[in-house]
């Protein structure tokens, strides 16, 4: 089991533009067969700071997700509005 | 419902020291009546980067957690070994 925290930082003026892109990304990703959990949150103190908490069976499933049509179409559209690079953290359960 | 991501950064030479402190913190916190979920993870690329994913009914419950005896005893013991300030992010569900 692999957990991922992916953090995006979007320019304030582009937040309204990315919201429907995120909505579609979440919807389509949850339909992937190997997706265990794919939740999107927004930082209470920063409306341009988007935080995904994801769960995949393994790294191969995460890689497959990053190769889907919806990922390859939507993520570059979102990233065009980044104000800084996203932070992807792969984490293992403690004890 | 409130979700929290809390990230600690511990000095490499102190990791073995903090592990039992984290273990006790997780164990005691999960016994708190208002705790919905309290999970601890470790960054696959950085064994000193500890990531909590927490769920509380509201901010008052989180504040109560930060005022428990175990929190006030264990967290300063852990923080003594920090290599940088922890990052606490309160997040709301997107859509």
TrEMBL record, chains A, B:
InterPro entries: ABM_dom, AI-2_Isomerase_LsrG, Dimeric_a/b-barrel. It comes from the Bacteria. Transmembrane segments: none annotated. Its EC number is 1.-.-.-. Residues 2-90 form the ABM domain. Keywords: Monooxygenase, Oxidoreductase. GO terms for molecular function: monooxygenase activity. Pfam families: ABM (PF03992). PANTHER family: ABM DOMAIN-CONTAINING PROTEIN, QUINOL MONOOXYGENASE YGIN-RELATED. This is Quinol monooxygenase.
């Amino acid at each position: 089991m692999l957990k991922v925290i992916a953090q995006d930082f979007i320019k304030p003026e582009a937040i309204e533009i990315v919201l429907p892109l995120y909505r579609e990304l979440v919807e389509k990703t949850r339909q992937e067969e190997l997706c265990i959990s794919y939740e999107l949150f927004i930082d209470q103190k920063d409306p341009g700071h988007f935080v995904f908490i994801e769960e995949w069976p393994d790294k191969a499933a995460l890689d497959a997700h990053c190769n889907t049509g919806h990922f390859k179409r939507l993520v570059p559209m979102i990233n065009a509005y980044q104000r800084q690079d996203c932070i992807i953290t792969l984490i293992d359960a403690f004890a």
